[in-house]
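Fill-in record for Transmembrane amino acid transporter.
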Amino acid sequence: MSEKTGDGIEPVARSSSSIENGKVAAQDDSFEVFKKQEGQVDFRTVGWIHASVIFLKVIFATGVLTIPSSMYVLGALPGAINVLGWQFLNTYCAIIQGDFRNNHAGCHSIADMAHVVGGAWLREVVGVFFLVTFAIVGASGIVGASTALNALSSHGMCTNSFMLICTVAVFLLASLRKFEKIAWLTWAGFASVFVAVFIVVVGVTQRDRPAAAPQTGDYDFGYHVIGNPTFVAGMTSVASIFCSGAGTSAFLPVISEMRRPRDYKKSVYLCMGIVTASYLAFSLVVYRYCGKWVASPSLGSAGDTIKKVAYGVGLAGLLVSACLYIHVAAKYIFVRLLRDSRHLQANSLVHWAVWLACTLSMSFVGFLIGSGITIFNYLLALAGSLTFAPLALGLPGYLWIYDHREYRNGKPWQVLVYYLNWAMIGLAVFLTIGGTYGVVQNIIDAYARGEIDQAFSCADNSNSS
């Protein structure tokens, strides 16, 4: 028999034993987007350890740099609960997406999954959300890297010039064609950011006062176990923490390039375990020693000398993060354009022209967004509320419901799980509306206070300096 999951997804021959309850058996690899064929480029080269490191680099770099400032707004206890709660949900949603992808033929991205459950119109909507999401977080990586160059040079050049330099570097790195090649970069990238954050954590514990606080006389330290934020400030901080682990839709294209897609869960559990423990430990220590004087990105929290050391060590990781975000978005466009063409896996002029056009266009869009919103935590909060909430929280809830419709009339515990997934969709709607309102209001207020200058200006808008 044959199966077709949507426009542009090839029908594949399938034995009756490989399908159960309308799902494709995960052990059958014949429906993979990238085929292993002689004379074609082999994209299926990523092992599960490499995949886990790619996932770590997608999640870890930018998220850990904004959580301490979010904890100041929420307080240490609510902040810690948010870190644990959101990371649990993000892990759960990552597993749902992987299971769905391995159960339905031809799914390369979250947009393909949307097509399975909602048809062509939903695929296009989700595809746009996916591209906007990773353009925004790509912009955050470019902003973070340009902030690093600003710190290392003591603001020796126009901020926008640094952003342009970083964008060119990101474009070149993102244009590496296969995740296997980028995987080797992610080892160095993850290590550099992890060490950089650790340097700052040690650095803040060695100071009598936070670096940004008055160094003489009385001052307000600003440490709270439970904060008292306004709705706007609270939702922005919650969205930032959620965003720090919500990039799970970027995991999906990686599965298509794994040697054994069934190993996906092992990669996710290893990644999210390290991320959750690191986020909680690093952010609580930095907030405990810096209070309200924590910087965003947090690498600037331990004084000028430590800031330069940390940014010098972490610069590679920030660039690799931005490169991954741009690569994932570009790979989505690339596969959509060439999926039904021999050029998808051929070393042809068309193949390379389309691929480089995709990475260049996404890098340029990231540059434009970064030039318009140069405050790091606002970029991440905007991504968390506007796009990640429906993409990484709401849609996975419905994917689970689609594959487990029998739970609605099942045993009591199955009915409970069924409606908990509907509740997760409701949470995504609330975070999308409330979080987006909060972030947009904060951005408007920041422009009014002069914290964000006009786009393409040479002013240093980083609040980490």
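KEY FINDING: The chain has one domain: 44-212+220-449.
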